[in-house]
Amino acid sequence: MTAARQLPKFVGEPVRRREDPRLITGKATYVDDVKLPGMLHMAIVRSTHAHARLVNVDVSRARAAPGVVLVLTGADVKAASDMMPTAHQPGMNSATRYALADGTVRFVGEGIAAVIATDRYKAADAADLVEVEYEDLPVVTDARRALEPGSPVIHSEFGTNLCVNIPMGDKEAADAAFRDADVTVRQWMVNSRLIPNPMEPRAALASFDPGDETLTVWSSTQAPHGLRGTLSSLVRVPEHKVRVIAPEVGGGFGAKIAAYPEEVLVSLASMRLGRPVKWVESRSENFLATTHGRDIQAEVELAARRDGRIIGERLRIVADIGAYNQQAGASIPTLTLLMLSGVYKMGAFYAELNEVYTNKTPVDAYRGAGRPEATYFIERAIDMLARKLDMDPAEVRRRNFIPPSEFPFATPTGLHYDSGNYEPTLDKALEVSGYQELRRRQQELRQQGRYLGIGLSAYVELCGVGPSFIVAGGGWESSTLRLERTGKATVLTG
After folding, report:
1. I need a surface site. Which of 53, 341, 402, 435 has the fewest CB within 10 A?
2. What pTM was estimated for this model as a whole?
3. How does pLDDT run across 370-391, given as a tens digit for each residue?
């Protein structure tokens, strides 16, 4: 008699990562590892100017260079594809952008031409032969200055650099709370712009089969299903004839969610040539052409009673979305809006968000996408309030937590929290960190002229959203259960 097979336990037990052996032994497959017969390579000619009119783009020398089989310009791309997708909000000035610039460049690194050759070195050499004549235009790189009268306007069709203005909350109630407050704090806070820096930069390989008119794309994307639908509309191939394969991503952090111009360009080139076309981003291209993150700042104000209870919150937010409204770019700051009350019962609330165009690389998702920015604004303001009241920052947080008895709780930003009990988690964190001893040590060191920093943060994060008003298109998911002839079950989940 054999012993019963021990089934694996997944809850409460460490689970060994299945992907590690291939990753650490060099056996993983990235896009650049995929090699197809007859494959060509693409290089991009990128703008060296932050804002300029393209007087002339001469590609004649590049077309005649050894190994070059195709050069695409902005006019070629505009005729063969649709404009890049953008985020949508009511009343938004949403700028048109194609996979290559046609007429005007608006940030350093924007694509001007694509050179396709028999190997990547010939493609890069030929790209250097493209001659671009620029006429400089005024530049604005500071979002607050971009809103001032007389500032250079990046998209002339709007007559303003404002992409969208979104007010939220009750302004009159918030103003009344500040008039009524015993104490107020106010500070301008900055979430700095940053550049995602994955181990593997982006890459794309497209192969169009002219026989059955199918397009297969290998991409270092985080969202192959979304890219499939977007590419279908952009390059005008029916979605059921588009397949997107995501091998190892090599680090994404949100920056590889959106569809990018390069995926469109390799697809158009392959469709025109009937041969596979690959593009692999260089590290310097990554700094310029992959979307950036954050770049949102705000004047944050809290109004409170002397006992530390907050009765009002106001924010004036300026979000720099860069030169274009990227696929989710203008949606990211709205997530900041939604999370601005955090885990606290804030009383009256009002915030106004201005999203602004500047001559910088477009911004999109990065590591929390708008939600860490909200947490920073709130938690920094709580610490400022604690200092002004000469209270322990932990105690100020405790006094303003949403009490368990008030769940489900409707926040002033329009969210509904179904449940929560924040005080025990704070108490546990203080206990395991030895908080009181740290505070004692902090005072002791301060007498010696040495400074020990102690930081606290309490937060909730909006994530894993299903069908809701927050997700463009509603959001959906699926699963499939198959019973095989062998009696085994196969479960497929999104």
Report:
1. 53
2. 0.91
3. 999 999 999 999 999 999 999 9
